[in-house]
Amino acid sequence: MKKFSVVIANRHATSISLEDEFYFELINIAKEQNLTLNNLITDIDKTRLTPNLSSAIRIYILKTLRQKLDQSLK
After folding, report:
1. Burial class of residue 34 (count of CB atoms within 10 Å of its CB; 0-12, 13-18, 19+)
2. Is 41 exposed, middle or buried (0-12, 13-18, 19+ CB in 10 A)?
3. What's the pLDDT tens digit per position in 11-53?
4. What is the largest CA-CA distance in the chain?
């Protein structure tokens, strides 16, 4: 489990706990989208449907990986 601090929308500092596998995948997604980790998490925060940010991040990662898989199978 990795706990790290982020700043959401350049104004709100918070801590997030994610399993190592999710954390490293989140880093990869940010790199692929040419975003900083804070900017990617800000984007996730703006559109999340769950009150728990860590859960929203996991869901975002899962959806992103599913999208990649679907595209690779076409």
Report:
1. exposed
2. buried
3. 889 999 999 999 999 999 999 999 999 999 999 999 999 999 9
4. 41
Residues ≥6 apart with Cβ < 8 Å to 59: 48, 50
**Could you tell me the residue range of the domain that residue 61 belongs to?**
2-72
Assessment of whether the complete model's pTM goes beyond 0.85: yes
Looking only at the bridges linking them, the beta strands covering 12-18 and 2-8 are antiparallel
Phi-psi region of 18 (alpha: psi -120 to 50; beta: other; left: phi over 0): beta
Q: Are 40 and 33 in contact (CB under 8 A)?
A: yes
Distance in angstroms (rounded) separating the CA atoms of residues 45 and 48: 5
Number of domains in the chain: 1
